[in-house]
Amino acid sequence: MKNYISINISYLRAKTGLKQKDFGNLFGVSGSVISSYNSGTIPPIEFIQKLCSHFKIPIDDFINKELSSIPVNPVIDVKEQFLQYEKNIQAYEDLIKAKDELISEKQALINELREQINKLDKLVEIQNVLLNQNNILPSK
Protein backbone atom coordinates (compact mmCIF):
# COMPACT_ATOMS: atom_id res chain seq x y z
CA MET A 1 0.00 0.00 0.00
CA LYS A 2 1.36 3.41 -0.99
CA ASN A 3 1.90 6.04 1.67
CA TYR A 4 2.20 9.79 1.18
CA ILE A 5 4.42 10.60 4.14
CA SER A 6 7.39 12.02 2.26
CA ILE A 7 5.17 13.87 -0.23
CA ASN A 8 3.13 15.36 2.61
CA ILE A 9 6.19 16.39 4.62
CA SER A 10 7.52 18.15 1.52
CA TYR A 11 4.12 19.74 0.93
CA LEU A 12 3.77 20.97 4.51
CA ARG A 13 7.28 22.40 4.54
CA ALA A 14 6.65 24.19 1.25
CA LYS A 15 3.28 25.44 2.51
CA THR A 16 4.91 26.95 5.58
CA GLY A 17 7.68 28.55 3.55
CA LEU A 18 10.26 27.34 6.08
CA LYS A 19 13.69 25.95 5.33
CA GLN A 20 14.30 22.29 6.23
CA LYS A 21 16.27 23.31 9.32
CA ASP A 22 13.53 25.65 10.60
CA PHE A 23 10.80 23.15 9.79
CA GLY A 24 12.76 20.45 11.62
CA ASN A 25 13.19 22.72 14.65
CA LEU A 26 9.41 22.84 15.00
CA PHE A 27 9.45 19.11 15.68
CA GLY A 28 12.81 18.65 17.40
CA VAL A 29 14.77 17.26 14.45
CA SER A 30 17.51 18.62 12.21
CA GLY A 31 17.20 19.81 8.65
CA SER A 32 19.10 16.75 7.42
CA VAL A 33 16.54 14.50 9.10
CA ILE A 34 13.75 16.37 7.30
CA SER A 35 15.71 15.91 4.06
CA SER A 36 15.86 12.16 4.67
CA TYR A 37 12.09 12.09 5.30
CA ASN A 38 11.54 14.02 2.06
CA SER A 39 13.63 11.37 0.31
CA GLY A 40 11.48 8.51 1.54
CA THR A 41 12.84 7.53 4.95
CA ILE A 42 9.85 6.72 7.14
CA PRO A 43 9.88 8.92 10.26
CA PRO A 44 9.17 7.48 13.70
CA ILE A 45 5.56 7.55 14.85
CA GLU A 46 6.41 10.20 17.47
CA PHE A 47 7.43 12.60 14.72
CA ILE A 48 4.28 11.87 12.73
CA GLN A 49 2.17 12.44 15.85
CA LYS A 50 3.85 15.79 16.58
CA LEU A 51 3.50 16.93 12.99
CA CYS A 52 -0.14 15.89 12.71
CA SER A 53 -0.96 17.44 16.07
CA HIS A 54 0.77 20.69 15.10
CA PHE A 55 -1.08 20.99 11.79
CA LYS A 56 -4.30 19.45 13.14
CA ILE A 57 -4.26 16.74 10.49
CA PRO A 58 -5.66 13.26 11.10
CA ILE A 59 -2.79 10.77 11.05
CA ASP A 60 -4.70 8.58 8.61
CA ASP A 61 -4.99 11.48 6.15
CA PHE A 62 -1.32 12.35 6.57
CA ILE A 63 -0.22 8.80 5.78
CA ASN A 64 -2.79 7.72 3.20
CA LYS A 65 -3.81 10.88 1.31
CA GLU A 66 -1.95 13.50 -0.62
CA LEU A 67 -2.69 16.61 1.45
CA SER A 68 -2.41 18.95 -1.51
CA SER A 69 -5.35 17.16 -3.15
CA ILE A 70 -7.71 17.47 -0.16
CA PRO A 71 -10.33 20.12 -1.10
CA VAL A 72 -10.46 21.77 2.32
CA ASN A 73 -6.87 21.76 3.37
CA PRO A 74 -6.50 21.59 7.16
CA VAL A 75 -2.99 23.00 7.06
CA ILE A 76 -2.56 26.03 9.28
CA ASP A 77 -0.21 28.54 7.74
CA VAL A 78 2.78 28.28 10.08
CA LYS A 79 4.57 31.10 8.36
CA GLU A 80 1.64 33.40 9.13
CA GLN A 81 1.66 32.19 12.74
CA PHE A 82 5.38 32.90 12.92
CA LEU A 83 4.91 36.42 11.52
CA GLN A 84 2.13 37.07 14.04
CA TYR A 85 4.42 35.78 16.79
CA GLU A 86 7.14 38.22 15.67
CA LYS A 87 4.59 41.07 15.66
CA ASN A 88 3.54 40.14 19.19
CA ILE A 89 7.16 40.11 20.33
CA GLN A 90 7.69 43.56 18.77
CA ALA A 91 4.55 44.86 20.48
CA TYR A 92 5.78 43.55 23.85
CA GLU A 93 9.21 45.08 23.25
CA ASP A 94 7.54 48.41 22.42
CA LEU A 95 5.49 48.20 25.63
CA ILE A 96 8.59 47.45 27.67
CA LYS A 97 10.40 50.39 26.06
CA ALA A 98 7.47 52.72 26.80
CA LYS A 99 7.35 51.44 30.40
CA ASP A 100 11.09 52.02 30.80
CA GLU A 101 10.76 55.55 29.39
CA LEU A 102 7.88 56.27 31.77
CA ILE A 103 9.91 54.97 34.72
CA SER A 104 12.83 57.13 33.64
CA GLU A 105 10.59 60.21 33.43
CA LYS A 106 9.10 59.49 36.86
CA GLN A 107 12.58 58.98 38.32
CA ALA A 108 13.68 62.35 36.90
CA LEU A 109 10.60 63.96 38.46
CA ILE A 110 11.37 62.33 41.82
CA ASN A 111 14.96 63.62 41.64
CA GLU A 112 13.71 67.12 40.80
CA LEU A 113 11.31 67.04 43.76
CA ARG A 114 14.11 65.88 46.07
CA GLU A 115 16.22 68.84 44.93
CA GLN A 116 13.34 71.22 45.63
CA ILE A 117 12.84 69.67 49.08
CA ASN A 118 16.57 70.10 49.80
CA LYS A 119 16.37 73.77 48.72
CA LEU A 120 13.35 74.29 50.97
CA ASP A 121 15.13 72.60 53.87
CA LYS A 122 18.07 74.98 53.39
CA LEU A 123 15.72 77.97 53.29
CA VAL A 124 14.10 76.82 56.53
CA GLU A 125 17.56 76.45 58.09
CA ILE A 126 18.51 79.96 56.99
CA GLN A 127 15.23 81.33 58.30
CA ASN A 128 15.81 79.61 61.66
CA VAL A 129 19.35 81.01 61.87
CA LEU A 130 18.09 84.51 61.12
CA LEU A 131 15.30 84.19 63.65
CA ASN A 132 17.78 82.85 66.20
CA GLN A 133 20.14 85.75 65.61
CA ASN A 134 17.35 88.21 66.19
CA ASN A 135 15.98 86.25 69.12
CA ILE A 136 12.66 86.02 67.44
CA LEU A 137 12.48 82.27 67.58
CA PRO A 138 9.21 81.23 69.15
CA SER A 139 9.59 79.43 72.44
CA LYS A 140 8.63 75.84 72.61
TrEMBL record:
It comes from the Bacteria. The keyword Coiled coil applies. Keywords: Coiled coil. Residues 92-130 form a coiled coil. SMART domains: HTH_XRE. CDD domains: HTH_XRE (cd00093). The keyword Lipid metabolism does not apply. It holds the Pfam family HTH_3. Residues 9-62 form the HTH cro/C1-type domain. GO terms for molecular function: DNA binding. SUPFAM superfamilies: lambda repressor-like DNA-binding domains (SSF47413). InterPro entries: Cro/C1-type_HTH, Lambda_DNA-bd_dom_sf. This is Helix-turn-helix domain-containing protein. It comes from Abyssalbus ytuae.
